[in-house]
Amino acid sequence: QVQLVESGGGSVQPGGSLRLSCAASGKFFSIDAMGWYRQAPGKERELVARIIKDGSTNYADSVKDRFTISRDNAKNTAYLQMSSLKPEDTAVYFCWSHITTETSTDNYWGEGTQVTVSS
Length: 119
Known about the structure:
Elements: E1 3-7, E2 10-12, E3 18-25, E4 30-39, E5 46-52, E6 57-59, E7 67-72, E8 77-82, E9 91-100, E10 105-109, E11 113-117
Parallel strand pairs: 2-11
Antiparallel strand pairs: 1-3, 3-8, 4-5, 4-9, 5-6, 7-8, 9-10, 9-11
């Protein structure tokens, strides 16, 4: 059973910073990619950032130059450093991972962590 456990959400003032962590646990052969999506009230879930096994990254245009995704392969953990936060970054952030197990390759999701940016 693969699990993704997120941590690091919370409340911050505009211009502040937060760091999210996502740790994958369970039995698997490889983590092909990890990342974060977010969903604000009344909006669809959208990609924020992802990092592929080879280290390449993708970011939503709205977070480029403010957010940085990184990965510690030894710990099966990904990090999202969020800086210069804006009220429009307020959302539930979901960790996502594309993982290959003994029997299949699937997408996995964390339960989500709330990020609130408000003065």
